Amino acid sequence: MKTIHKTILITGANSGLGKEAARQLAGLKETERIFLGCRNEAKAIAAKADLEQATGRSIFEIVLMDVSSVESVRSAVAGLDQPVDALIMNAGGMGGKAPGQLTSDGVTRMFAANVLGHVALLDELLKTKKLNDVAVFAGSEATRGVKKMGMKRPKLEAGSVEELATVIDGSFFGKKFDPMQAYGYIKYLGTLWMSALARKHHNLKFITMSPGNTSGTAVMDDLPFLMRGIFKKIMMPYIMPMMGIVHSVEKGAQRYVTAITDPSLKSGVFYGSKPNALTGPIMDQSTIFPQLNDHRIQDNAEAAILRFIR
Asked: Which H or E element spans position 7?
């Protein structure tokens, strides 16, 4: 029997996976209100109109927030007039044209967009008792390495708070910030943080769910011009489908829906594709990368992240 959630907040909801997840969730008669967490007001208004037309329901409400800004998400939570049953932290990407550039919080733009703002968002929801049941963080198979994509598994020397902090501020990567390499490390820290929270809040569920390698999203728009062209014009439409390592945005978003509605999924677990796959059935990723279950590194990741929350 599926878990019922009446109110849901989705970040990055104006396009791609976030928007599609909102559409699918609106198809469940139990859903009463969906908050569309968006950075751009004009795009949010257009997405809301599209969703209302597609679903025939007027249950969507815009919540303006920039997940790369701690102050923005705090303000957004303060403006919520009711708690949410479920939170889907979908927003992220490659960090724009300067992913390794530091924000005012001292973290790379990539880390801010994928993790720091979501940490602040979830922290505020917990403090104000505005989360009733489940939080889902958008993970990535890059966290445990993807040979087919040339992504090596994140490798840490000590897994200490200090070392993890260097991933956050970008110094871990040296002078050349490679967004494809950094992405796996950053999603890794987000995944560890979620598992640490799960061990502290037994009345709630904290799940990391990879949407898989999904076509039709804006993630690759943040890559450098040449790399973006290769991925969008060659890899995504031709090479990846032949290799069986890309699926539709509908299937990617369905994983989010599964994360908040399937009661068999366990808190603190990272779910993603099988080994050497980026699509298909999901499984516990710690069976592929056991270090995900290391409580010491989980706690160190949380402590490292909180250093940058002001």
From this structure: strand 7-11
With cut-offs at 50, 70 and 90, classify the pLDDT of residue 53.
very high
Tell me the pairing of strands 33-38 and 7-11: parallel
Amino acid (one-letter) located at 89: M
What are the helix (H) ranges across 79-198? 109-111, 117-127, 161-169, 179-198
Instruction: Using alpha carbons only, give the angle 252, 257, 289 rounded to the nearest 5 degrees.
Output: 65
Give tens-digit pLDDT for 168-188.
Answer: 999 999 988 988 889 999 999
Quote the CA–CA distance of 143 and 136 in Å, as a whole number.
16
Q: Rounded to an integer, what is the distance from CA 50 to the centroid of its chain? A: 23
Residues 6+ positions from 167 with CB-CB distance below 8 Å = 111, 173, 182, 185, 186, 189, 304
Amino acid present at 56: G
Q: How far apart are CA 153 and CA 192, in angstroms?
A: 14
Domains and CATH numbers, the chain: 7-306 (3.40.50.720)
**pTM of the entire predicted model:** 0.91
CB within 8 Å of 299: residues ≥ 6 apart: 196
232 DSSP 8-state letter: I
Q: Over 253-265, what HEC string results?
A: HHHHHHHHHCCCC
Contact 245, 141 (CB under 8 A): no
- Residue with tokens 């950053």, as numbered in its chain: 186
- What backbone phi and psi angles, to 5 degrees, belong to 65? -160, 145
